[in-house]
Amino acid sequence: DAKTTQPPSMDCAEGRAANLPCNHSTISGNEYVYWYRQIHSQGPQYIIHGLKNNETNEMASLIITEDRKSSTLILPHATLRDTAVYYCIVRAIHYGGSQGNLIFGKGTKLSVKP
Amino acid sequence: GAGVSQTPSNKVTEKGKYVELRCDPISGHTALYWYRQSLGQGPEFLIYFQGTGAADDSGLPNDRFFAVRPEGSVSTLKIQRTERGDSAVYLCASSPGTANSPLHFGNGTRLTVT
Question: What is the pLDDT of residues A60-72, one digit of tens each?
Answer without folding.
Answer: 999 999 999 999 9
